[in-house]
Structures are given as structure tokens and as C-alpha cells.
Amino acid sequence: MNKKLLFPLLLLGAGIVFIVISFLNLGGGSGGLDIKIQKSSLIMPAAHKVYSNSQALNGQYYLFKALITNNGNKTLEKVTMKYRVPGYIEWTELGTLGRMIPGQSAVVACYPTFDQKITEKTTESIEKAEIVVEWAGASESDFLEESFSFKILNRNDFAYTNIPANEIMSWGDMFDNSPLIACFVTPNDPIVKYYTQVVQEKVMKGESSSVSGTPEAAVQFLLSLYEATRMSHMVYSSTKAVPQSLDDVSTLIQHVRLPREVISGNTGLCIELSTLYASVLSSVGLNPVIFFVPGHAYPGVKVNGQYYAIESTGIGGEGLGGIASAEDAFKAGMKNLEEFVKAMQAGDPRYSLVDINEVNAVGITSMNLDDNDFLRKKVDDIAMNFLPGQQGNVNVSAPTARGGGSGIGGDNSNRASGTLTFSTPSGWQTYHSPVPEMPILTTQVVSPDQSVSISVFDIPANSSQNAMQLVSQYFSQNGMQLEFQINGGRVTGNTYYPAYGTATKWIARIAPVQGGYRFIAVGSDSRYYDQYSGTINTVYKSIK
Amino acid sequence: MKTTITLIIVLFSVSLLHAQELLKPKMELKIDSIGNANIKVSMTMNANQWQMWSQNYGNNPALLKRNIEKEMPGYFMDDFKLEKNDMDRSFSFTFKAYGVCEVNKRGTWIVSTEQKNPDLTKLTEHKYMMVSTDMANGMQETSIIEFPESARNIKETKDAFDKTQFEFEMKEMRSGINWFLWIGILLAAAGGGWGAFISIAGKQPKNAQPF
User: Fold this and answer.
1) How far A114 CA lies from chain B's nearest CA (Å)?
2) How many A-B residue pairs are in contact by the CB < 8 A criterion?
3) Gap between the Cα atoms of A298 and A293, Å rounded
4) Separation in Å, CA A125 to CA A45, A181, A213, A474
5) Cβ contact, residue pair B104, A98, below 8 Å
6) Angle of CA points A341, A342, A344, to nearest 5°
7) Which positions in chain B touch A17 (Cβ < 8 Å)?
8) Among partner residues B73, B173, B185, which is closest to A19 by beta-carbon distance?
9) Any chain B CB within 8 A of the CB of A25?
10) Do A2 and B104 touch (CB under 8 A)?
């Protein structure tokens, strides 16, 4: 071949290659479509109706949302996105975009409709969502495909937050999902309805609270309901609550028994008793409210804009330090409410309430549950305890209406009102909620020369081990490392600050208090611990 | 346009606790030729409102960004910028929102106001003003919606949920230059032409004496 033709042929070949590439770029591959996914780390089956509702809480609870951008240079027609979750949701179209011109973006959010069977799920699992984007004229090999994994919890699990751990700033962030507790309030559950009817018939001998709409009638209903739980020998008991990490989210996941399970099991934790009360109150047309305070929750009712509360855990149990009467439980509830209102007015974010009717109105609704003959039989068995003559005094005088929700005071005879306190040496400075990033650290007391400090932690946990794990988790999130040894109610340990190369040595007591655990630690810089051991031991001995 | 009032509420929610007068934020939403929008929210506050706002958001723009993203799940947003003027107690918060408009099967562009019977005033051919009042949160928001220059036949219609939306036509942007194609053609033409020239020149007799 003529050597002179080499370069022209090379040029011609390169030109042909460029032309071929240009056509491949136009018609093949992903058509120039790019996709960016933001996904949810977990799905709570109890809240499956929330996830399916794009209007619920302004559409915050989606499975994923996708940003599709046409980065090609050709207009795409009929761009369609579909997805599936094998075993749960078959291929489902999320809508069709008529056209996507070059450079155009579109946002598609997925609000999945899970089958009701998801509410029967009793184990958690990792599932995979598959996404396909197709458009007119594209062959199957051109389709844009994406997938991601996420966790489906079991139906009783309640994750307190979806906010990534590195974004947590306040108590409110840690309990960001609180409104979803309304998904566990099941007034339409046939078993709850049956229980309500039985209580109305056998304990209340007929009731008119929802008919009359007066505070007196509503409070009478609260008292009667408490009396029903007391007569059935319902007891307070804890359930599992463990911190879990899912992707970048770290949250406390609590096992919350459904109201039907609380009725049939005749036992419940504070939050479970609250959802039971709320379910029954809602089923008779009252406006239930659940109050959240650090480490505890209790139910109430809103009548004509005013709140009334009862300490539902007053039923306690013989083994748990006694059983409060309905009157005492109501007094304790109202006293708690008084403190609640003060804290709310002071802007303390740890005090919040969920108005069930209000959150229902924005799409947070409960799961559907089927009737169950066995559970009805259990209700009948429990009703055997509702015998005439066994009832306590439920004729409490009606509360006086007062503004701001505060009402009747009185002795707090709540079973779980035990606490852990210490004597503050004179001259020491007290700081409340000193570290916003660590809301469980409720108080810190520091000696005048700042050499010794006392830290009080109020931890929503059901065992001392869990409580310490939660403390450890918080410390870790704040760049500290905790090392501890629990011996009964006594805890010893060190806190390391890698950024500064220092450590604090401390000694502490931990004990169950209302709705959680209190942990009081006293210590100093490990280098000077011995020097201040006298002061430290004095404070430690005062912790009671 | 989705949940713009939500955006405003997030921006000001905390300051409202101590607000003595109606807050009047202004929002400018400028739609570009590919359906994205540059959004700017600005406002001047009184001393009390400024103090509250600064404590909660002004000194923590990351929290502001997070809350806005959380409250407006229908958007993908970026390019957040917060500019404060402490002397005037004013701020402007800007960001870009993608996919604000969509194109239906007939090629009509649609942007929803997400409101039923909003108070709309046409300012110019491409500019509309919308006033939304939320007495519960004590604010009156003025939104200026600016359509791209290439938008034609802008009209107000209702969607299936009776919410007001804007429909307009926009000449489709010409496809971008396909550099690969044109470079390929040029190279092929140059190579082919050069080769042809050499071939033709090579066929001439070596001893040719044309004249």
C-alpha cells in the first residue's frame, strides 16, 4: 500500500470511529439518563399506611425518592419509573413523565402500598427494592436499573428516629418519629372495640362521656378505664428496647405491644398502656392524647381544649411496690401534667405530646387488624374479674377547669416514682441540660474549682445494661469513649477523650426510676482522682 | 412550587413564638428553561424576631437546610446559601430546586401552586405574584413567580384536585451539538479528501510534460 495513504486512512478511520460513537451515545446505554436515589433506611410495618400516603405529614415518610436527569442530548418521551420489593410489592408504576428534554430533571417519590399482611410480620428482615426507568423507543437492555436495600422491622417495633446519627442535635431529633406512635393506637381493632364494650357494660354500667362531652364525664371514663385494668390485675412490665444502627441512622428501637396484646397479655409498659388508653378513648369518640416526658409516657384526654391525664402505670403490680387507686393515679397524672405544662412553657424539647386526632388528620393512621375469636375469649376471661363489689372508688369529683392544661394537684402516689438523688455540696454550680447534643444528661453539678463534677443521666431504657449502652452510644457520638463495670447498682468506669488525650475516672450509681433509669456519676480527671477521692466518696455515699 | 408555604413556616417557625406582628417574607421563584428553579427567600425582622431567628437558624444554617429538606420531600435541592445582614436584621436564603416543572404527554409545561384559589396577580407577561396568608402561623407570604423568557401562552388552570396550576408552552431547546458526530465527519472528510488527492496525484505519469 502506498505509504502516503497511511495518514489519510488513519484520519478517515478516526472519523468513522467518532461517528459510530456519536450514534452509540445517542441511542444506546441509559439514553443519558442519570438517577440519584434518597432512600429510607427502615420501614415500620405498623406505619405502613403512613408510608403509602403521600400527604401524610407532608409526605415525609417515603420509601425512596429519585432525581432523574436527562444528561443526554435527545428528548426522551414517556419516561416511566417502576419499582418492586420482591415478596412484598410487585412491579408498580410510579408515573409517566410525558417528555424529558436534554438537561431536564424530575423528582419522583415512592410511597409504597404494602399488603396488609405486613402487619403480621413478627421478625425483621433486610429487603431489596428494585427500580427501573424506561422510555419510549428504548429496548430492555437500555433501561436504567437501580436497587438498594432497606430493613423492614417487625410489626411491634417502633424506631424513635430516622435522622442520621451525625445530624442529631437535640432530644427532639432523637424522638423525631414520636407522632408515628399513633399507628399503634387501634380504635378500629375489633378486639379493642369488644374490650371497650365489655368495660362500658361491666365496669362503667353504661357511659356518656362521648355523648355529654363534659370534662367530668371524660375524667370519669379515664378513671373507669384505669379501674378496669386494675380489676383485671393488669401489671406493668417492660419490653425490649435496643439501640440499633441502620445505615447512617442510630436509633432506639422499642418493642411496642399492640393494644390487643396488652389486653390479652394483661400487662404493659408505660407507652403500651398509653396506646391502650388512647385506643379505647378514641373508640368511644373522645380525643386522646399521649404525653411524652424524659423516659416515660402517660395517657390523657383533651376536652374543650383542656387536657386531663392519668398515671396508667399506677396499676404496677404486687411485686412492683403496690397498686395505686384510680383516684391516686389520676392525681399523679394531673401532677405530672402540671410539670409537663411548665416544662413545655419553658421550651424544654423533651416534653412533647401527641394528639391522636390531630395526627390522624394529617394521615398518621393505625393498621387494620382482623377479628380473632381466641382474643375475644381472652377478653371474656378478663371480664370475669369485673365483678360487682370489686370495684374501687371511682367517684372522683370532676376536675376544675383551668387554663393551660394544669389541673388538680396532689400526692404523687405513682408506683414508679422512685428516684435517685444526691446531696449537692455547698458552693457547687448546677447546670441543667448542659450538653444539647446529649439530652440524656439532664443535670451537671461542678465543684467551685471545676475539679470534680457530678453528672445525672435520665435514660429511657428497661435495664441498667441497656441504659449504659445508650450512654456509651451518646458518648461515642460525641467523640468520647466509655469504659465501665456494672456491679449491681454500682458502676465504675473511665471516660476517654481521644481528641485531648485525657480521661475522667468516675464512680456511679444506677437505679430504675419512673419509666427508665437514672445514672449519677461523680468523678474527676483521672490524673487527680486520688487527690479528690475524699470529696468524690462523700458525694457518692450521698447518692440514694 | 410544592409546599412553598411549608418552606416559609420552617424558616420562621421558631421566631413566631415571640412574633408580635405579622411576618411578611418574600419569595422569588425563578424558573429556568429546563424546569428547575432558583428560589430566594428574604425578609427583614424586628429586633425580637431577629434574636430568636438568629439563635435557632441564623447561627445554624445546617439545621435550617436539614429542616427544609425534611419538610419539602417533593424537591431535590442544592446550592444553599444564607446571607445575613445583622445591621439591617435581614437575610436572604437561596437554593436551587430541581424538577419544579414537568412536561405532560402533549408537551405542555406544568407548575403547580399546590393551593386552591390562590390570590394571583399577573405583573408582566412572564411574572406573577401570589399572596398567601397563614393566620395560624402569623405570616403573609408574597411570592413572585418568574417564568423563562421562552415561555409562551402562560395560563392558569386547575389540576385533578382543584388546585391551581400554571400551564405554558416552551420551545424545546435544540439538542446540544453532537461533537462526536461533527468531529467524525470532519475527520472522515479530511482523511477521505486527502487520500483521494494523493490517489489522483499518484496516477499522473512521472514524466508527464503537460506543456
Assistant:
1) 20
2) 141
3) 9
4) 11, 21, 45, 26
5) yes
6) 65
7) 184
8) B185
9) yes
10) no
In this complex, the residue of A60, A96, A107 whose CB is nearest that of residue B70 is A60
Q: Which has the minimum average pLDDT: A130-144, A307-321, B5-19, B131-145?
A: B5-19
Give the B window 101-160 contacts with A, CB below 8 Å.
Answer: 102-107
Q: Do A8 and B192 make contact, defined as CB atoms within 8 angstroms?
A: yes
Mean pLDDT on A338-344: 88
The one-letter amino acid at A257 = R
The CA R_g of chain B, rounded to the nearest whole Å, is: 28
Residue among A450, A457, A441, A456 at smallest CA distance from A535 = A450
Q: In chain B, what residues touch A73 (CB-CB under 8 Å)?
A: 175-176, 178
- Asked whether A111 and A58 are in contact (CB, 8 A), the reply is no
Determine the distance in angstroms separating the CA of B66 from the nearest CA of chain A, rounded to an integer: 9
Are A104 and B103 in contact (CB < 8 Å)? yes
Asked if A97 is an interface residue toward chain B (Cβ–Cβ < 8 A), one would say yes
Closest partner residue to B36 (CB to CB) among A18, A62, A105 is: A105
Please give the residue of chain B at the shortest CA–CA distance from A80.
B105
Q: What residue of A is the nearest CA neighbor of B177?
A: A73
Measured CA to CA, the distance from residue B108 to residue B183 in angstroms comes to 35
Q: Which pairing describes strands A429-432 and A441-446: parallel, antiparallel, or unpaired?
A: antiparallel
How are beta strands A452-459 and B37-44 bridged, if at all?
Answer: unpaired
pLDDT tens-digit readout, A365-385:
998 888 999 999 989 888 887
What is the pLDDT of chain A when averaged over all its residues?
Answer: 83
Q: Does B6 touch chain A (CB under 8 A)?
A: yes
Look at A402 and A98; give whichever has higher pLDDT.
Answer: A98
Q: What is the interface pTM, i.e. ipTM, of the complex?
A: 0.74
Contact list, B76 vs chain A (CB under 8 Å)? 36, 38, 65, 67, 105, 107
Q: Which residues of B touch A344 (CB under 8 A)?
A: none
Classify the phi-psi angles of A58: left when phi > 0, otherwise alpha if psi is within -120 to 50, otherwise beta.
Answer: left
For residue A17 the three cell numbers come to 470511529
Distance of CA A300 to the CA centre of its chain: 19
pLDDT tens digits for A241-279? 777 777 777 788 888 999 999 999 888 889 999 999 999
C-alpha cell at A250: 442510630
Instruction: Please report the pLDDT score of residue B116 as a whole number.
Output: 85
Question: For residue B197, what are the CA distances in angstroms to A10, A36, B171, B191?
Answer: 15, 52, 45, 10
Q: A191: which 3 cell numbers?
A: 378486639
Give the C-alpha separation, A82 to A67, whole Å: 14
Could you please report the per-residue DSSP string of A264-293?
HHTEE-HHHHHHHHHHHHHHTT--EEEEEE
CB A416 within 8 A of CB A513: yes
Q: For A101-110, A131-140, A157-166, A411-420, which range has the lowest pLDDT when averaged over its residues?
A: A411-420
Amino acid residing at B37: A
Residues 157..196 of A with a Cβ closer than 8 Å to B: which? 167, 169
Q: What Å distances lie between residue A72 and A69, A96, A306, A544, CA to CA?
A: 9, 19, 60, 71
Q: Which residues of B touch A58 (CB under 8 A)?
A: 3, 6, 71-73
pLDDT 10s digits, B97-150: 998 998 888 889 999 888 888 889 999 999 999 998 877 667 788 999 999 999
Gap between the Cα atoms of A343 and A324, Å rounded: 25
